[in-house]
Every structure is written in structure tokens, then in C-alpha cells.
Specification:
With about 325 residues, the protein is an alpha/beta fold. The chain is built from twelve helices and eleven strands. It folds into three domains: about 45 residues, 434 Repressor (Amino-terminal Domain), CATH 1.10.260; about 120 residues, 3-Layer(aba) Sandwich (Rossmann fold), CATH 3.40.50.2300; about 130 residues, Rossmann fold (3-Layer(aba) Sandwich). The longest helix has 17 residues.
Length: about 325
């Protein structure tokens, strides 16, 4: 652990108890067996653990809850994030408020008002304005999920640079030349980084990249619409690189519905590696990101006294049949 202070999770792992047990022992609350309490106290003393300010607030039941805020709630991506976040928060004895703003005009004001009702807030990147995040962080602990850190506000995000590796695979290993990128970078830090990595791979391969992405939403229905726009004309692309798996699955449905062969007539790729990606035929080539761990790590960071830490979780290229492998 070096010179930094240990987290409640690390103490729990060393003592081989739950996070909730460490919290009860460190604060002298709740019922814990004497021998178990002694074991935890020994580990606490040895490693110099001190509960965080948020943890104390939760134990004192100031509010006893934290919140996680998304731009929307539909689809397997958000479901996995919620499961990871909720598990860690509940282990620490905190209730969870789950909020989908659905990009309402009053979203920023609603999130600011929530700071009076919870002990910490995780905000998905692109959901509210940067100035709103700064105002929010002045009231309660804040962590940005799937977004860039902002002036001392920590973040947890996946490594989106693997999109360059996927694009190089299509350009170099398969020899595709006419690639399009489907997904809108507007308001999405993740999609912005993936689009930039897509462009970077073209530059490195000496191939001209498209002038811009095909700006659509990230739902499966958006992918079906994109397929209609991209696959009906004579200048059909060699490969369609989608910003996420849901969009890619929609493009796949649209392509197969038009009698096209995937990858014979067009290759299709995604990003996320949701469960359905390995079940469709052909299987979807994609980039696996640890979605549930993104949520879990966000909750741990929110409830730990490590307010300046930024985490980038690794991702992995997954090759299946939809690209031609």
C-alpha cells in the first residue's frame, strides 16, 4: 500500500471480513463477535486505517445514502454499471438513489438539489455541465463515471484507446479501406475518445479517415436506422465501426434484414462486449470493457478518502466473426 492510507475494502480483504464489518468495528457500532472484532482491530492498527469522512456520515446516518446519475437508464450497459455500484454501496451500508436525467432541461438543477439529500454523488460523464460538477463538489463528494477528471474531481473510466487497435485490425489485417464510425461524440466523453482513436489509427496506417462520424444515438434502434442510411446506396462501406455494442447489434440486424452477408458484404464492430455480442451470428467483434467493475470502482472511490485518485480500467480487443476473423 506504500505511504497512502488503506481503503476499507483493502482492510476487509486482509481481515477476511465484509466491508460492513470493518465499518462497524472502526466506528464501534452494531453487533460483532468479540473474536472477529479483535481480528479487525489488529488489522486496522497495523495498517493505520481511518474511516473516511463520507463513511462517518453514513455511519452517523446523516443521510445514509449515495446517488448515481446517468443521462438515461435503458440498455445492458447502464444495468451492469448500476449492479456494480449498488453492490459496493450496499456492502458499505449505504442506500442508493439511481437517477436518469434523460437530458431534461432541468437536469443540472435537479442534480444540484440532490446534494442536500445524499452523502455523495457519482455522475456519468456528459450528464451535466462542468460548472455544475464544480458546484456539486463544493457540497458533497463527487466522482465522475466514464468521463475525464475535472479540477480535482476524481474519475473512473475505461481505456478507450483500444478503439485504435480495433481500427488498425480492420485496416491492416483485413485490408478494409472504406470505414465509417457510427456514434455521436457530442456530450459523450467516451464516444469522443473512441472517435479520436479511430482517426488516430487511420493516420498511422496512412489511410484517409472519413470527415466525421455518423452522429446517431447509442440504442439498438439507432443502429437499425444507421444501417438504412449506410447500406442502401452504391457506396457501401467496407466496415462499420460502432461506438457501442447496442448500436452495432442494430446495424447487424439492419444488414442481415437487407440480405447482406456479414462480414462478406460489410464488416461490423462494437464496443462493450455485452452478453448478446457473443450470442448473435456472426459473433460481434468488439472491445470488452469491465462495465460492472466500472460501477463498483466508482462506488469504492466515492466512499473512500482518496478524493484525488483517477482510475483508468483496462479494456481488451475481442475478435469474432463479424469483422472477418
Amino acid at each position: 500500500m506504500g505511504s497512502r492510507r488503506p481503503t476499507v475494502r483493502e482492510i476487509a480483504e486482509i481481515a477476511q471480513v465484509s466491508i460492513a464489518t470493518v465499518s462497524r468495528v472502526s466506528r464501534g457500532t452494531g453487533q460483532v463477535r468479540p473474536e472477529l472484532r479483535q481480528r479487525v482491530l489488529q488489522v486496522i492498527e497495523e495498517y493505520g486505517y481511518r474511516p473516511s469522512q463520507l463513511g462517518r456520515a453514513l455511519a452517523e446516518r446523516k443521510h445514509g445514502s449515495v446517488a448515481i446519475v446517468f443521462p438515461g437508464l435503458a440498455g445492458p450497459y447502464f444495468s451492469e454499471l448500476i449492479q456494480g455500484f449498488e453492490y459496493e454501496a450496499m456492502e458499505a451500508g449505504a442506500g442508493v438513489h439511481i437517477v436518469g436525467t434523460h437530458k431534461r432541461a432541468a437536469a443540472d438543477a435537479d442534480v444540484l438539489a440532490m446534494s442536500a439529500r445524499v452523502d455523495g454523488i457519482a455522475v456519468h460523464g456528459g450528464t451535466v455541465k462542468p460548472e455544475t460538477l464544480q458546484r456539486l463538489a463544493a457540497e458533497v463528494p463527487v466522482v465522475v463515471l466514464a468521463g475525464q477528471p475535472l479540477d480535482g474531481i476524481p474519475s473512473v473510466r475505461a481505456d478507450n484507446s483500444q478503439m485504435a487497435e480495433l481500427t488498425r485490425h480492420l485496416l491492416v489485417d483485413h485490408g478494409y479501406r472504406r470505414l465509417v464510425f457510427v456514434g455521436s461524440p457530442d456530450g459523450s466523453p467516451d464516444v469522443t475518445e473512441r472517435w479520436e482513436a479511430f482517426q488516430q489509427a487511420h493516420r498511422e496506417a496512412g489511410v484517409e479517415a472519413p470527415a466525421g462520424p455518423v452522429k446517431i444515438g447509442l440504442q439498438q434502434s439507432d443502429g437499425v436506422i444507421a444501417a438504412g442510411e449506410l447500406l442502401n446506396g452504391p457506396s457501401r462501406p467496407d466496415a462499420i465501426v460502432c461506438a457501442n455494442d447496442e448500436t452495432a447489434l442494430g446495424v447487424l440486424i439492419g444488414a442481415l434484414g437487407r440480405g447482406l452477408r456479414v462480414p462478406g458484404d460489410v464488416a461490423i464492430t462494437g464496443f462493450d462486449d455485452v452478453a448478446m455480442s457473443s450470442l448473435v451470428q456472426p459473433g460481434l467483434t468488439t472491445i470488452r470493457q469491465p462495465i460492472r467493475e466500472l460501477g463498483a470502482a466508482t462506488a469504492r472511490l466515492l466512499m473512500a478518502d482518496q478524493s484525488t485518485e483517477n482510475l483508468v480500467l483496462p479494456t481488451e480487443l475481442v475478435l469474432r466473426g463479424s469483422c472477418g476473423c
